[in-house]
Amino acid sequence: SSGPTEELLAAKATILVMAGRVDEAYGSSTAALMLRADLLSVLLAHGRVLAARRDHDLAVEYLRRALVLGPNNCTVLNLLGDTFQQLNEPEQAKKHFDLSIAIDAEQPAALNGLARLELAAGDHDNAIAFSRKAREVDAENASAYLILAEAFARKGSTIDSIKAYKDAMVRNADPRRSRRGYVAECLAFRAASGKPCDRGFVRLLVRSACVLQQPVLNPKTADRFVNAFIAAIDS
Fold first, then answer.
1. CA–CA separation, 107 vs 176, rounded Å?
2. pLDDT tens across 14-58, in order?
3. Binning pLDDT at 50, 70 and 90, where does residue 172 land?
């Protein structure tokens, strides 16, 4: 291209926000908006950036404007669902995720959104069902494994939760959160077995979590490791 058109600036803003460079993304999406404020891609990019900046009310305003231009755009609907969830408006969030699913039933983003809503509402079985569906659609969808792990944990299915946390860690899903969940569930399993949980054992759990988060680790190796580790904790 001969210059920074609004389409390029919007695309740049989206890439920057995905890389966590939110301030730079805001500059790029704002520049795109100044060039043209009636383009779906520009409004979508700016809404995405505003949501990342936690300016959720303003994000909803721009995403709704984007939805007028693309009423069947699943990305806009999913972002609105996520933003309403952050605003603690579950009914509005569910409405937009449901609309998105009605357009395309096999979307990990919408399925994960519904799973998070069910988890927040305390419906663990439905949260498990939605996250499993998201996992079936995309076997490498890290967020689905993390939601599944947390749903199993809240339901009290400790071994299933440990295995799901392992899958989340292998796929680098929110490393700190998945690591903490894995260690907590392993400790709960150990305590339920009536065995001691001293400082050395906790260190062992933390080190095992670090092993699972290594990018070179083969998923099948991780499976064998966790199965053996669970057996070792139990015995």
1. 26
2. 999 999 999 999 999 999 999 999 999 999 999 999 999 999 999
3. confident
